[in-house]
Write a structure and sequence with these properties.
Helix content is 39%, strand content 20%. It has 101 residues and is of the alpha+beta class. The protein has a four-stranded antiparallel sheet.
């Protein structure tokens, strides 16, 4: 099945299930503040692993104790798609304090 851009309504419905995520320009985006630089670095490594598994990659930025992601789907002209939300859900699952163990 081909990947299709989501409508504004579909994006809003999915965002309601992902507190902290938003649309920034034409990308799905989220930032996390962690307890230390080491924790932030570890999160980046885990996100990179998820991105490889999904074969869908975000712009990923590591700060001192922050991690920021911004993603859209290049194959459909840079629109937000279900692939972006799949990645967002997986990141939420591993984020400290957001359901991760």
């Amino acid at each position: 099945m081909a990947v299709e851009p989501l409508s504004q309504k579909e994006i809003e419905e999915r965002l309601a299930e992902l507190p902290g995520w938003s649309v920034d320009g034409d990308r799905l985006a989220r930032s996390y503040r962690l307890g230390s630089h080491f924790a932030a670095t570890a999160m980046v490594v885990h996100i990179a692993q998820v991105q490889e598994e999904l074969n869908h990659h975000s712009d990923l930025t590591l700060g001192y104790n922050t991690v920021s992601l911004a993603v859209n789907t290049h194959s459909v002209g840079g629109a937000v798609t279900e692939l972006d939300f799949d990645l967002a859900r997986r990141v939420e699952d591993l984020a400290p304090g957001h359901g991760a163990n």
